[in-house]
Amino acid sequence: MPDNISLRDATIDDAPAIAAIYNHYVRESLATLAEDAMPDTPMQQRVQTLCAAKLPFLVAVDQMQNGIAGYAYASPYSDRSGCAPTLECSIYLHPDHCSKGIGRQLMDPLISALVSTTTKTQVLAKMSILPDQSPESLTTCRLHASMGFRQVGRLDRVGFKLGKWVDVVMLQLDLEALRK
């Protein structure tokens, strides 16, 4: 990780910068299947809700530019009570900060926090991918695999964005196995 990057817990004040990063991917890529930009207020609510639930929400801060270089968080996988042991994680990097090791620097403490401070048993991650693409061709899939996530499924042509059909790859990490 570059020397000018530090990690810390997200705050409500970070929401505009976090939303700006996310909205770049909404507008410009298939990384999210969302097509409508997220306003700052819902992102503030997300930060507040996850922090109140004692779930990790981390930001990487570029000290030289005094801005958010990326973020990662864990959220409930589903609001159904039977899914309470399962979380979903998300990570997004500012486009100027990709391929610099910041993703791993965010994911390491995120996973460590899930192992040490929660009783959750599983964490899932979803990645959008083109139908003819292999998961290994995506940096984010390779990052998650290097963290111990394993591919557990692929949903074919479940999205359509930017004029393209999109698959979704599902990855899973067994937190209980990491506690042993």
From TrEMBL:
Pfam families: Acetyltransf_7
Entry coiled-coil feature ranges: none
Keywords, alphabetical: Acyltransferase, Transferase
GO MF term list: acyltransferase activity, transferring groups other than amino-acyl groups
Domain N-acetyltransferase: start-end pairs: 5-176
Organism superkingdom: Eukaryota
SUPFAM superfamilies: Acyl-CoA N-acyltransferases (Nat)
Entry protein name: N-acetyltransferase domain-containing protein
Species the sequence originates in: Cryoendolithus antarcticus
